[in-house]
Amino acid sequence: MGNCPPASSSDKSGRDPVLKDAKVLFIVGGPGSGKGTQCAKIVEKFGFCHLSSGDLLREEVASGSERGAKLKDVMARGELVSMDDVLQLMCDAMKKKISETKCFLIDGYPRELEQGTRFEKEIVPCVGVLYFDVSDETMTSRLLKRGETSGRVDDNEETIKKRLQTFHNQTKPVIDYYSQQDKVCKIPAEGSEKDIFAEVEKYVSSHKW
Fold it and tell me: In degrees rounded to 5, what are phi and psi of residue 46?
């Protein structure tokens, strides 16, 4: 099913020595593609540290900080937060966890190409990209169902449409870029959680971490 190339080694020169041995998998897919669910399964099975840019952003919002208030407004409009804010949140979170594990799942990142290239230049190159491929119809249905209980400001139909358009406009080039480097593992993610994870497991278990 998924065409999964081998994970590549990292060039560790010229980057923060604290994170020089980190092994990073970018987790990419539209809102409602099931990224978080599959990351939880990878953590349980393989012991990776799961960092979600979305969760980190929401934690910042919940903190009541001035930056959090600005981020809340951006998220409510279905737009992307600034690259500097996201990159800093991810870097800080990795540094807090590096003493526990060297293997990281960066969930929902990069959302646009420059986020990925800057992450690799300033922090560490990614080992690979797991791309969860799901139709807009399926993602919309999943998000509306989640919105019934989540209480999230961005789980409503109008905002979902904007989020999906943003995804197509800004995240698809990420897949094209890393595909050219033979780093993308495309996971068909319309099926059951079990079937999807079977494909994920094949990729992760085939490499030494």
Answer: -115, -10
- Could you tell me the residue range of the domain that residue 46 belongs to? 24-203
Q: Residue 147 contacts by C-beta under 8 Å, 6 or more apart in sequence?
A: 155, 156
The CA distance from 167 to 111, in Å, is 7
**What is the tally of structural domains in the chain?**
1
pLDDT of 9 higher than 50: no
pTM of the model: 0.79
| Predicted confidence (pLDDT) at residue 7 exceeds the cutoff of 90 | no
Q: Is residue 8 part of a domain?
A: no
Range 18-51 burial, b when 16+ CB lie within 10 A, else e: ebeebbbbbbbbbbbbbbbebbebbeeeeebbbb
* Per-residue pLDDT at 111 exceeds 90: no
Name the 3-class secondary structure at 98. coil
Domain containing residue 47: CATH number:
3.40.50.300
